[in-house]
Amino acid sequence: MSIIIDYIIILWGFLLLGLMGIGGFFMFRKFLKRMPKEDGKSSLDWEEYYMKKTRNMWKKDEKNLLEELVSPVPELFRDVARQKIASKIGEIALKKRKKVITQDILIEGYILATPKRDHKFLRKKLDQKEIDVTPYEHLFEQ
Questions:
Q1: Which 8-state DSSP code applies to residue 73?
Q2: FRET pair for 84, CA 20 to 30 Å: which of 2, 31, 113, 132?
Q3: What's the sign of the alpha-carbon dihedral 84, 100, 124, 139?
Q4: In the chain, pLDDT over 70 holds for what percent of residues?
């Protein structure tokens, strides 16, 4: 009986160490994103900057499209993904000196902000929305 309890305690210890390691990994990633780069601003600072600069450039249809495109992301990570993607879209809109965010800019920013491993899900979602991806094929290669 005491051997079983010993094994349970050992397994519990490994479980706790594993969970703390996973949590530490995500905290360290967040810490690295907060570290200032050569220009003195971090990745998160730039995301916030683009979000604030382009807040009034979003039309209702584009906001709804962004929500639909982000919907496959697990709810736990959806807010982070939405901010990262929206800031990339805002960055593109500002670089192109646009007054409003259009569907083309939204899709371009979404493709560039999405990791390559998730491109197949993005393609599937765009097909569901009946959006032609052929004008954006070169973006999937970057």
A1: S
A2: 132
A3: negative
A4: 100
